[in-house]
């Protein structure tokens, strides 16, 4: 039996949410200790995992996921028991996820990710499992070991899992608003998504435009939505000159806008521009957030 605190850690759902789901939807019925504390079974944990997975992968509300669970009790069979995985280290999970992705196995890939989220904090899963696996797939595609279809399938599945967090992480309307995009011709936006999730965890509203964003109309959007900072990811240096020109034009019309740029497509000269801040490492993110973005409140 597990305490509610332990269940929260295993499943990645706040204790207050577990209590709310229990009281409103009666989906689990924990026992009580002699002291009156809730005690949850392995079956309770599997139900919570299943609900969380359905909400994230299918973009459902909790009421919709509960309705599915109650309408089709046999769906419980699809809940992955933790004993199915004898080794839950990141290395083992990475091997399993890689194999599921390159074999185009949507359900199994999502099960591997769900298990990781139930065992570890979501930021750890992103940085220690999902991103390394995706980078490995990208590297194997570039070397000819994998097909374009395998690389695209893997990228899309993981991006879908990333974007599910945007609905779950709350924002603070009192904080500055950030626009996130990759410039025209830039199609790699995993790094941008990870940075955007970092901002969302801080309570920042992120208007996420994603890959290959045309410059046309961006300045008007920035003015209309009162954007405080533009977060830009660049992995292809061929797009650097056009991006620099747009930043200069934008700076003239919105002089107080901050520009933060990351990615392997940023060279040393561009990185030293007085108009932007280059975040080469994730260790720089908190410093930029605290000392630059929050000053615009």
What does this structure look like?
The chain has about 300 residues and is an alpha/beta fold. The chain has three domains: about 5-80, Orthogonal Bundle (Multidrug-efflux Transporter Regulator, Chain: A, Domain 2), CATH 1.10.1660.10; about 80-165, Methionine synthase domain (Methyltransferase, Methionine Synthase (B12-binding Domains), Chain A, domain 1, Orthogonal Bundle); about 170-295, 3-Layer(aba) Sandwich (Rossmann fold). Helices cover about 55% and strands about 10% of the residues. The chain has 13 helices and seven strands. The protein has a five-stranded parallel beta sheet with strand order 4-3-5-6-7, sandwiched between helices. Strands 1-2 form a two-stranded antiparallel sheet. Helix 3 (about 40-60) crosses helix 4 (about 60-70), helix 5 runs antiparallel to helix 6 (about 105-120) and helix 8 (about 150-170) packs parallel to helix 9. The termini are far apart. The relative contact order is 0.07. Residues about 75-80 and about 80-85 have low confidence and may be disordered.
What tags apply to this protein structure?
alpha/beta, 3 domains, 5-stranded parallel sheet, two-stranded antiparallel ribbon
